[in-house]
Amino acid sequence: MSQVLICEVGPRDGLQNAHQLMPTDAKKRWISALAAAGLKEIEVGSFVPPKLIPAMADTAEIVKHAITIPGIKVVALAPNLKGFQRALEAGAHKVTFPVSASRQHSEANVRMTPDQMVEEVRKCAEYPHPGVEIEGAVSTAFGCTMQGEVPDDDVVRIAAALAQFCDGVALADTVGYGNPAQVRRIFRRVKSEIGGKLEGAHFHNTRGLGLANSLAAYEEGVRAFDSSLGGLGGCPFAPGASGNVITEDLVFMFESMGVSTGIDLEKLMVARKLMVDVLPQEQVYGHFALAGVPKGFRAAA
Questions:
Q1: Fewest CB within 10 A of the end CB: N or C in the chain?
Q2: What are 73's strand-pairing partners?
Q3: Which residues participate in catalysis according to the annotation?
Q4: Measured distance CA(83)–CA(292) in Å, rounded
């Protein structure tokens, strides 16, 4: 039976762009509920300066809670060596580094050019990190609200550079500009360059193409996907970047296809209710949440 891995990024990508702050205790309960639903990988926060993203000020405490939950891989994002060191101290199992293919977005997001950011990730990879995975995520790989078109060649070049010293590489449609034909083309090109190092896909649902892009990536051999419960999220440093692919819709799509996610939709909706109750003013999305399980539905497992 086919299987995919879904990484829930709501506690990081979702909350960093939320209008309200989720209290630390509620974050812990939410992450525990996500794990109970069967999510095996959860991006719980980012090690960035709290003055830039106040919602991430408690990430170290959240990581320390999450690593006590059996059976999950705890992921954190870091933009530089200092953030990486903090992630290691907290006990993260995997650290993701965003490397934008758009120069304008890169300078706005991390105050570095794409090439400078690649070198920053190289420094982190050379820093002792026994047992901790490093992922290089090529962000704005399908377009940028600041720069507009991002050349495929730039995406391939950055992915190839990261593949030299990262355990895995992902491609991210940070602002939701991608379409299925473009997704197939770019994933195919990058895979031909770096092979099995190309692991993951991170899509946003800005113009409603998140599921279509996920399916296109799946058909190109991708088996690891980021998504956010309720479609929460976006990048504070990329104007116009709205929410991520909706976790519950993505799970339903794959399970309907006979592709196992290992996630229990009923328990996932419990986690969604917890999140909605804590953030009542936040806009959330999702067709599955509105329509529910169709008659005769059988999960892949």
A1: N
A2: 41
A3: 235
A4: 40
d(CA 75, CA 92): 6
Please name which of 74, 3, 90 lies closest in space to residue 41, comparing C-alpha atoms. 74
Instruction: Identify the CATH homologous superfamily for domain 5-291.
Output: Aldolase class I (3.20.20.70)
Task: Kindly report, residue by residue over 10-56, the tens digit of the pLDDT.
Answer: 999 999 988 899 999 999 999 999 999 999 999 999 999 999 899 99
Q: State how far the Cα of 115 lies from the Cα of 152, in Å rounded to an integer.
A: 16
Burial of 254 (0-12, 13-18, 19+ CB in 10 A): buried
What does the domain layout of the chain look like in residue ranges?
5-291
pLDDT per position as a tens digit, 208-247: 999 999 999 999 999 999 999 999 976 555 555 468 999 9
Crossing angle for the helix pair 180-194 and 152-163, to the nearest 10 degrees:
40
CA 192 to chain centroid: 23
